[in-house]
Amino acid sequence: MKRGDVAELAGSCGLGAWTAFGVLTMVVIGHDGAPLFTDGDLLTWSVGHRPDVAVAFTRGLTATGTGVIPYVLAALAGIIVGRTLRQRALAAALCLACLGTGQILRYAVMALVARPRPPRTDWQTHASGWAFPSGHATTAALATGLLIIAVLVRSPRGKTPLALVIGIWGALVGLTRIYLGVHWFTDVVGGWLFALGWLGVCLCAVAWWLPERWAPDMKEEDAVHDAKGPMASADDRTDTAREQRETHAPDHPGRRGRSRPA
Description:
Layout: H1 3-30, H2 39-48, H3 52-63, H4 68-81, H5 85-113, H6 135-154, H7 159-179, H8 185-209, H9 220-228, H10 231-247
């Protein structure tokens, strides 16, 4: 796929996700942060289905959606995408910037909306701050998206099952927030939409403005040329000239020099 097509697709997905996020945000604000749709029903179900083993497992899973783990996964995505050491360093920095900037924007939205969390009596883990959009859901979705993009770009064997496993992890982290009673369902959906929108913006920007030599579809010989620097140009020209001479060599080995008209 051409870089222009990638930018257009990413931009369209990002715009669509943020449009949906904007609509959901307006609905949340319009209802003064009260539960929406199936928020109350899902919280009631979660409270009634909490065996100790499930709660312990869910707490462990939800812990992977915050702190250092998402940033490690974002850096890993950059390492997977890059071919050379310099490319990997740049890609990792861009992925970390995407995740970090997304977190800052989410905090700003969360403070503006100021939606209360579910009743504290239903909580099964620690939580702080406002509810919308869910921080764990947003962070895990951003890390998941970066990893899936990296896997698809590099196209290793078994990329579909691997991408599916990564996606399941990101979705489960968001759902644990509902099960543990610290977020409404629409908080988690808002986090997913926000993350998808921000990923679309970042991928679109990279596809448009990243120099051609850093493109993910760069061929191996281009990587070697980039590593060699200016000296590679003279060598490449010499190899090309040699190939042209061999291609235009006379058909009869006994004849030397250029053919002359009779």
